[in-house]
Design a protein that fits this description.
With about 725 residues, the protein is α+β, with helices and mostly antiparallel strands. The chain has 22 helices and 17 strands. GO terms for molecular function: histone H3K27me2/H3K27me3 demethylase activity; histone H3K9 demethylase activity; zinc ion binding.
């Protein structure tokens, strides 16, 4: 016979199986279980029932019996009021005593600001360490419903069937109920108890269209900036909360989950914040208080040096920084909107708060969703930020360096247990496409580079390196060309098994020594020796280019002739695209050889680089012949380079992979990348370029100013070589 399949047991008047998501209550007579929604018993109301009779038993045994109140100062109001037990937080007695207390004014720590002043740039410069109050929300970029927006309107936009979390304030206990039931309670003439709604997140409802969060919260948010669209984990939505509280609602002292910063705006009504600064001592006291068995009987504001009282009235927006310990009293019926966001300014404090939550064994329901996952995403992006800062020859902001160091420690601690244990089920939030150990190693390497020796502000200042912009647009952070180039270099370095080739710095120093030596040579030196040295050096460069894809260095030497005034000179054209040096010399001799003015401009550019004067042939006819000879020598050199680049050996292949193939009638040009700024072309053939020339007007330099104090090519090359003997070098 075929065995019968087990059938689920049915309950309630609806005869449905057990559903873990629905509140149920047991009848003390028939012992059957009933859905609260089927027998019209709310979850928060069930705790007041002493003996419950279901609808069937009610007809035979009478109505349910309610608990008798014996006190007004304890969460369990059935305890006898014999004066032996202290007042607990949230009770009516507690609220009366709280309102009678005196506190230091919040004006001592509150920053009153215009919304237009609260920018990411301002907070990055001055820090985000104290609460900020703004009285005109429009200047913040904040958009909300009008002040007459009601609780019924919330139901209309969100939906009455949405199940929400509600706090029974007198018991400081959480329960669930439908929004429609809360609206009915809110408008009832007699409210049997104080209920408070503080966690209605409505990003997935129609009401979301009515709210635009403050610009500062949007621009700084980790979730908005770093959470990938293709993440395996669901995106956290914590930016749009609607808070609806009746008079005397109270939320005890807490730190917002994950150490998030928070914005509050009171649409109507009034809230009172009790604020405590997150000093190390206060945080230690807070953790001790949170883990104590009598937490609700101790007012935490009395355990610290100062607890500030801040009244937030209708139309005011309050921004609370990371880690601030605060309690909230609703002094009159109130509707407020708010949101939480993680950011880069206080990474260390955010991580400290999260680790405290772990030690306190905070349930996941009350923690920031996928906090560890977003930290991995942030770490990956900040690694790119540090690399780009190094490429741009500038120091990251101090707060970012400190934050990355704290992040490295946290990531390593999170990863260690997963490595030591045989994990049978997912216990880590490491995204699949991230190599955690490698990421930690690369971040550590970048931080060590910044802290190594004198690789701080002194080195940066000596090399003309400026501080990085604190912020970058998403497009700048994700520059495809830059990342692709870096990835190719990293892959080549990782997979190379050939003998160690000379570094860029070795090649650069070898060539530069030759350059500087010839610049100082007397007039009677033999040209043959120069040409011999040049050929040897050029051949070496081509050979190394084959072995190292990381070689961004290209040197071209052009030997000139003495003029008829007896002044001997050597023209040296060093075309370099080396990001770390700040020396950017672009497109010399890159135009058609048939253009006389262009060739003269090229000559002027090369002479300027060598720190020499140049006179136009038309201004001094006696020098025209020597200029013609000089042009001839330059063209000979171009032909020589053509022959070096057109061979069939492996060196020519490596060289040609980095050069541009000239069209018919064009002179061959060097392959290089355009850098942020460059030396300008000659202003006039008879004039030397300005010491601080304007940038070339092209897309790569548009709208950017040249760095101050730009030295001559010879001075910069000498300084770089001097520094390179003692300091780490950007690559």
């Amino acid at each position: 016979p075929v065995p019968k399949m087990a059938t689920a047991q049915l309950y309630c008047v609806c005869r449905q199986p057990y559903d873990v998501s629905r509140f149920m209550i047991e009848c003390d007579i028939c012992k059957d279980w009933f859905h609260g929604s089927c027998v019209e018993v709310e979850e928060h109301h069930a705790v007041d029932i002493d003996v419950y009779h279901c609808p069937n038993c009610d007809a035979h045994h009478g109505p349910s019996l309610m608990k008798k109140r014996r006190n007004w100062h304890r969460h369990d109001y059935t305890e006898p009021d014999d004066g032996s037990k202290p007042v607990q937080a949230g009770t009516s007695v507690f609220v009366r005593e709280l309102q009678a207390r005196t506190f230091p004014s919040g004006d001592e720590i509150l920053q009153q600001m215009h919304g237009s002043q609260v920018t990411q740039r301002y907070l990055e410069r001055h820090g985000f360490r104290y609460p900020i109050a703004v009285h005109k929300m429009e200047e913040l970029g904040l958009r909300l419903p009008p002040p007459d927006f009601s609780v019924k309107d919330v139901e209309r936009y969100v939906g009455g069937d949405k199940v929400i979390d509600v706090i029974d304030v007198a018991r400081q206990a959480d329960s669930k109920m439908k929004l429609s039931a809360f609206v009915k309670y809110y408008y009832s003439p007699q409210r049997p108890k104080v209920l408070n709604v503080i966690s209605l997140e409505f990003s997935d409802t129609k009401m979301s269209e009515l709210v635009v969060v403050p610009d500062i919260a949007q621009k700084m948010s980790w979730v908005e900036n770093y959470w990938p669209d293709d993440s395996y984990f669901p995106k956290p939505f914590v930016q749009k909360y609607c808070l609806m509280g009746v008079k005397d609602s109270y939320t005890d002292f807490h730190i917002d989950f994950g150490g998030t910063s928070v914005w509050y705006h009171v649409l109507w009504g009034e809230k009172v914040f009790y604020l405590i600064k997150p000093t190390p001592a206060n945080l230690a006291l807070y953790e001790e208080w949170s883990s104590s068995p009598n937490q609700s009987e101790v007012f935490f504001g009395e355990k610290v040096d100062k607890c500030y009282k801040c009244v937030v009235r209708q139309g005011t927006t309050l921004l609370i920084p990371t880690g601030w310990i605060h309690a909230v009293l609703t002094s009159q019926d109130c509707m407020a909107f708010g949101g939480n966001f993680l950011h880069n300014l206080n990474i260390g404090m955010q991580l400290r708060c999260y680790e405290m939550e772990r030690r306190l064994k905070t349930p996941d329901l009350f923690k920031f969703p996928y906090f560890e996952a977003i930290c991995w995403y942030v770490a990956k992006n900040l690694l790119e930020t540090l690399k780009e800062s190094r490429d741009d020859n500038c120091l990251p902001p101090v707060y970012l360096i400190k934050g990355v160091k704290a992040l490295i420690t946290a990531l390593r601690n999170w990863l260690t247990p997963a490595v030591k244990e045989v994990v049978t089920e997912p216990s880590s939030e490491v995204p699949d496409h991230i190599r955690p150990s490698h990421l930690i190693k690369m971040l550590t390497k970048e931080i060590q580079y910044l802290e190594n020796g004198n690789c701080g502000s002194k080195l940066m200042k000596s090399q003309g390196i400026s501080a990085c912009p604190s912020t970058r647009s998403a497009h700048e952070r994700r520059s495809h060309a830059r990342r692709t180039a870096r990835r190719l270099r990293d892959q080549d370095h990782h997979h190379s098994h050939s003998p160690k080739a000379p570094s860029n710095l070795d090649i650069f120093e070898q060539h530069t020594q030759e350059v500087l030596k010839r610049l100082e040579m007397g007039p009677n030196e033999e040209d043959a020796s120069l040409n011999l040295k040049f050929n040897k050096v050029s051949t070496a460069s081509a050979a190394v280019a084959e072995r190292s894809l990381d070689n961004d260095l290209r040197l071209v030497l052009c030997n000139g002739q003495p003029n008829n005034a007896g002044e001997h000179f050597r023209v040296v054209c060093v075309c370099v695209c080396l990001k770390c040096t700040g020396l950017k010399l672009n497109h010399i001799c890159s135009e058609s050889a048939t253009s006389p003015s262009t060739e003269e401009d090229a000559i002027q550019g090369m002479l300027s680089m060598a720190g020499l004067l140049y006179s136009h042939p038309s201004e001094d006819p006696s020098k025209g012949e020597h200029h013609a000879k000089l042009k001839h020598r330059i063209q000979e050199h171009k032909n020589f380079m053509d022959s070096q680049g057109s061979g069939s050996n492996s060196s020519s292949e490596a060289w040609s992979s980095h050069t541009h193939s000239p069209a018919h009638g064009e002179s061959p040009t060097l392959g290089y990348q355009y850098c942020e700024t460059s030396l300008s072309p000659p202003l006039h053939p008879s004039k030397r370029p300005a010491s601080n020339p304007p940038p070339i007007s092209n897309q790569a330099t548009k709208g950017k100013r040249p760095k101050k104090g730009m030295a001559t090519a010879k001075q910069r090359l000498g300084k770089i070589l001097k520094l390179s003997r003692h300091k780490p070098f950007f690559v």
